[in-house]
TrEMBL record:
Belongs to the glutamine synthetase family. It comes from Geofilum rubicundum JCM 15548. The lineage of its organism: Bacteria, Pseudomonadati, Bacteroidota, Bacteroidia, Marinilabiliales. GO terms for molecular function: glutamine synthetase activity. This is Glutamine synthetase type III, GlnN. It holds the Pfam family Gln-synt_C-ter. GO terms for biological process: glutamine biosynthetic process.
Length: 730
């Protein structure tokens, strides 16, 4: 019998929901308790130091050393009062998670005793021996020099007994080695470009924030079952497993009542999130069995992204208390829904205006249309970068694979908005407007109904959907650091807004009235962006064909998609907006290629191991029992017709099993050979391509035979938990 699997199933019978401690009566009583927020700064810092930090947060000014010491002192006092013993610079290296190296708050004083110490120098900068983080060759490992520097705009927080300082991670020569630094730069670029464009409409705007509301999807799996699945343990996804007779066909999981063990888990991690000031708001069952979602109230993008990374970490830890494991992989199970992380994105001004929300009068609506169309234009012009920023080894199973949406960027606007754009295209004349025309166009623009807000169409199949007051970038993968997508999105929008301003200025210089110039340019943008506007079913074959006719990109190969970063056009855009220089881009692509290659390599190894050491021996054992049975019948009945009639089906089965075993062995050997060839390749890009084209297909090939065996082999002998068990145990 397959011991581990049945042991795991037995464990399940004893699972009970945990009871969770209440940190306070009301959420507001303890929300942000472990965050060094403005209120706490005010309490723990001198008024001079407080003003200094505020200026750094709001204007991006530098923290000077003397002030840093004062701030460190206040922060230490707060941290010690809240049970912290250690501090760490918390950063986002180019791996799939965050990094931290803890140091204790201890110093040896003049008398040889121990005191709690923490200085401005330690607050502002740290030099972790970070030689093993991916750097794409920027930092030679033997130098191991990179440093982390405090990001004042994201508040410090305490996890357990450790004070965590959000930081950027850069090489000694200043190149970004993380996600945060380029994200901050992209946010600064879009801020500047958007403020400039806002001046056409409102001179009072002096800052534009980029906002992010992420919707995090995930799967839960019972810990015991997880431990019996080496593929889940090592690759976060199932590399084999026949589909369950019932999975999501009835759509009875989506929004249904949350299982008791799961709700206890959700409440537990939500409370931890609240203590850390993360405003998680929504929770529900997702489409696939054992798939769930959590979403917060949106925040400024850099903070929101820190919160997303932090919450993922908390969710992982808390899951273990509840004897669950969490799967952030985009496609842990073949044949059923994958997980995304919708990035709800908008731009808003320091005057309180959401630039992607229709306003109340012609002026604000014109501003809305301006931003809407500039975003569409940016997305259209840089589809390649958008794809490159979201395609990874794991997300490629969710986009562009079998039973998955295609890897095409299109934008959904909804019926109303499409009508408005079509009308605008028709009514704005190519020549100078008559006063009558102007009045009537403005009147129409003024009437852009605010009902757009309630009119958020539920087209779930669009990768980039306008939902009334924001764009919802749905193609982002559930395991991703949102920064990857947001760096690109904000950079290309910044670039486009700069172009737009230039175009308007040039026309105004030639004597065209500003409003008229804006309208004419927008009209052109409406024409230019028609190709990515698509409201139909984005998952259908018709759309794939239609998109090809429209000349839209459809790239699902990760190595191919990554090329976009190195195209001349992209290099220019990143440089012009001071987000990446070409060296950083090359390094980033190298890191991504390496990550991709290694992930496929690991999957191939795990599958090879499972196939040869788990599945084949099981199949052979079962075959042997069949052979014994056939042999026994022969002893009883002789080898005449009666015997033949009796054993026909088993002989067939023996042949089938034998054939599958042979195929598994032969294909595993071939896969290993392909790996050997690929591993000899010195060019990172070529190696990734070989893994994508020559190695990866074997994963499906081998799996096919294993899944067929699963249907034949005695259930009692099957070693790995089956899909029905993984998906329905909760
Ligand atoms: P859905 O119906 O798509 O699940 P929700 O109302 O749950 O939408 O919102 C999803 C996310 O979008 C939440 O994080 C929410 O705070 C965020 N969101 C709402 N408005 C905006 C906005 N203007 N900018 C950015 N994010 C927003
Ligand atoms: Mg949504």
């Amino acid at each position: 019998m397959a011991t581990l699997r049945f042991f795991a199933l037995k464990e399940l019978l004893n699972r009970k929901p945990l009871t969770i401690d209440e940190p306070g009566r009301l959420t507001s009583d303890y929300f942000g308790k472990f965050v060094f927020d403005r209120a706490k700064m005010k309490k723990y810092l001198s008024s001079e130091a407080y003003a200094h930090v505020m200026e750094a947060i709001e204007k991006g000014s530098r923290i000077d050393r003397k002030m840093a010491d004062q701030i460190a002192l206040g922060m230490k006092a707060w941290a010690l009062a809240n049970g912290a013993t250690h501090y760490t610079h918390w950063f986002h290296p180019l791996t799939d998670s965050t990094a931290e190296k803890h140091d204790a708050f201890i110093d040896i004083d003049a008398n040889g005793g121990v005191v709690e110490g923490f200085s401005g120098k330690l607050l502002v900068q740290q030099e972790p021996d970070a030689s093993s983080f991916p750097s794409g060759g920027i930092r030679n490992t033997f130098e191991a020099r990179g440093y982390t520097a405090w990001d004042v705009s994201s508040p410090a927080f305490i996890v357990g007994t450790t004070l965590c300082l959000p930081t950027i991670f850069v090489s000694y020569t200043g190149e970004a080695l993380d996600y945060k630094m380029p994200l901050l730069k992209a946010l600064a670029a879009v801020d500047k470009a958007a403020v400039d464009v806002c001046q056409f409409f409102d001179k009072n705007v002096s800052k534009v924030n980029s906002n992010l509301g992420w919707e995090q999807e995930y799967f839960l799996v019972d810990e015991a079952l997880y431990m019996a699945r080496p593929d889940l343990m090592l690759t976060d996804r199932t590399l084999m497993g026949h589909s369950s007779s019932k999975d999501q066909q009835l759509e009875d999981h989506y929004f249904s009542s949350i299982p008791t063990r799961v709700i206890a888990y959700m409440e537990d991690f939500e409370r931890e999130a609240y203590l850390l000031g993360i405003p998680v708001k929504t929770r529900h069952n997702e489409v696939a069995p054992n798939q769930f979602e959590v979403a917060p109230i949106f925040e400024e993008a850099n903070l929101a992204n820190d919160h997303n990374q932090l919450v993922m970490d908390i969710m992982k830890k808390v899951a273990r208390r509840h004897k669950f494991r969490i799967l952030f992989h985009e496609k842990p199970y073949k044949g059923i829904n994958g997980s995304g992380k919708h990035n709800n994105w908008s731009l808003s001004t320091d005057t309180g205006v959401n630039l992607l929300s229709p306003g109340k009068n012609p002026r604000t609506n014109m501003q809305f249309l301006t931003f809407l169309l500039n975003v569409l234009k940016a997305v259209y012009e840089h589809q390649d970068l958008l794809l490159a920023s979201i395609l990874t080894a794991s997300n490629a199973h969710r986009l562009g694979a079998n039973e998955a949406p295609p890897s095409i960027i299109s934008a959904f606007l909804g019926h109303e908005l499409n009508r408005i754009l079509d009308e605008l295209e028709e009514t704005v004349p190519d020549k100078k407007m008559t006063p009558d025309e102007k009045t009537s166009i403005k009147l129409n623009i003024g009437k852009i109904p605010e009902i757009l807000l309630d009119n958020t169409d539920r087209n779930r199949t669009s990768p980039f959907a306008f939902t009334g007051n924001r764009f919802e970038y749905r193609a982002v993968g559930s395991s991703a650091n949102c920064a990857s997508a947001l760096i690109v999105l904000n950079t290309v929008v910044a670039e486009q807004l700069k172009k737009f301003k230039k175009e308007v200025d040039a026309m105004v210089e030639k004597g065209v009235k500003k409003d008229e110039a804006i309208l004419q340019i927008l009209k052109q943008y409406i024409k230019d962006t028609k190709k990515i506007r698509f409201d139909g079913n984005g998952y259908s074959q018709e759309w794939v064909d239609e998109a090809a006719r429209r000349g839209l990109l459809n790239i699902s190969s990760v190595p191919e998609a990554l090329n976009a970063y190195l195209k001349e056009k992209s290099v220019k855009v990143f440089a012009a907006n001071d987000v990446f220089n070409s060296k950083e881009l090359e390094a980033r692509v190298e890191v991504e290629l390496e990550k991709y290659t290694k992930k496929i390599q690991i999957e191939a190894r795990v599958l090879g191991d499972l196939a040869i050491n788990h599945i084949v021996p099981t199949a052979v054992s079962y075959m042997n029992t069949l052979i014994t049975n056939v042999q026994g019948l022969k002893d009883l009945f002789g080898d005449g017709d009666e015997y033949k009639a009796l054993v026909g089906d088993r002989l067939e089965l023996i042949k089938k099993i034998s054939n599958h075993i042979q195929s598994i062995k032969a294909k595993t050997a071939q896969m290993i050979d392909e790996r050997k060839i690929a591993n000899k390749e010195e060019d990172m890009h070529k190696m990734a391509e070989l893994y994508s084209e020559k190695v990866k297909p074997y994963l499906e090939d081998i799996r096919y035979h294993i899944d067929k065996l699963e249907l034949i082999v005695d259930n009692e002998m099957w070693p790995l938990p089956k899909y029905r068990e993984l998906l329905f145990a909760r």
